[in-house]
Amino acid sequence: MRRVYGLDPATLWAGGIRPLDYADLAANLPDGSMVWRRLDSPRAWTTAEYLLAAQVDQLNLWMWANNDPRKRGDRPDPLPRPGTAARRDAATHEPRDRDADGRPTRTIRPEPMTVAEFERFRAQRFEDVTARAYRPHPAGDGE
């Protein structure tokens, strides 16, 4: 209450604010407030945080989809969202080192990051080190 409204909780006990008014203030705390974070409510994140998480999920999925299908492993999990702890606990599994055919696999796990870390990541210049020049098939190859 102090952080958002500038009110000391002691004023409730001193009779400075009626309990129902205090309850109204508590129920209408903005998204991203510490109370919502503590309660693991979907309102624990602001719209900007949800949009950043969606962007990270899409980037992870894009990197996974554009990798070699024989080496890419399982589809990446989305970043955990607030309010989904029960589903998150049920969905946890150990990463596998090899697939059914014995080929090595890797699992891309999401890691949370701050907005500043995300902006530094987006500012990087990426180059494809495995790109090869187009090589046409020799004539008479039958293709």
From TrEMBL:
<protein>
    <submittedName>
        <fullName>Uncharacterized protein</fullName>
    </submittedName>
</protein>
<feature type="compositionally biased region" description="Basic and acidic residues">
    <location>
        <begin position="68"/>
        <end position="78"/>
    </location>
</feature>
<feature type="compositionally biased region" description="Basic and acidic residues">
    <location>
        <begin position="86"/>
        <end position="104"/>
    </location>
</feature>
<feature type="region of interest" description="Disordered">
    <location>
        <begin position="66"/>
        <end position="120"/>
    </location>
</feature>
